[in-house]
Amino acid sequence: MGTFVISKRLNGYYKYEFTSRKGKAILLSNDFELRFECEENIELLKKSVANLFFMKFKSKNGKLYFKIILNEKEIAVSRKYTTQLLMEKGISEIERSLHNSEVLDFSNQNDIFPPAEEIFGSI
């Protein structure tokens, strides 16, 4: 089963990643100004698995990736893959486990590391 992970970018916008059951990122969302917009987009994806369109691309350096299109709007972009088979496995993982994936919200964790003073003392 895959997992949606919501986090906050350095610019203050929210994003989500869909990760495989092994913890590997499969796709990354667009930016959202508000967290609830991010959550709504995840619910829309979960309900619309059958209507998703996977548009496949090849980057300049030969890596493969896809964009998820729903109702003629780009929803998310996949990570880069080295082979066609790996990309197809990523798409298969989305189709198989997207609808029952859990959502983890890490957007409220501003600092995951303690302040430098706690570690090194006052300088």
Provide keyphrases for this structure.
YegP-like_sf; 3 helices; 123 residues; DUF1508 domain-containing protein; alpha+beta
Largest sheet: 7 strands, mixed
Gross morphology:
globular
How many helical elements?
Answer: 3
Which assembly state applies to the chains in this document?
single chain
Elements, N to C (H/E)? EEEHEEEHEH
Structural class: alpha+beta
| The number of domains | 1
Strand content: 25-35%
Distance N to C terminus: 47 Å
Summarize the topology.
Layout: E1 3-8, E2 14-19, E3 25-29, H1 35-47, E4 53-58, E5 64-70, E6 73-78, H2 84-97, E7 102-105, H3 116-120
Overview of this protein structure:
- The chain has 123 residues and is α+β, with helices and mostly antiparallel strands.
- The chain has a single domain (3-108), classed as PH-domain like, CATH 2.30.29.
- The chain is 26% helix and 33% strand.
- It is built from three helices and seven strands.
- A seven-stranded mixed beta sheet has the order 4-5-6-3-2-1-7.
- The longest helix has 14 residues, at 84-97.
- The radius of gyration is 17 Å and the shape is globular.
- The termini are far apart.
- The model has no long low-confidence stretch (mean pLDDT 89).
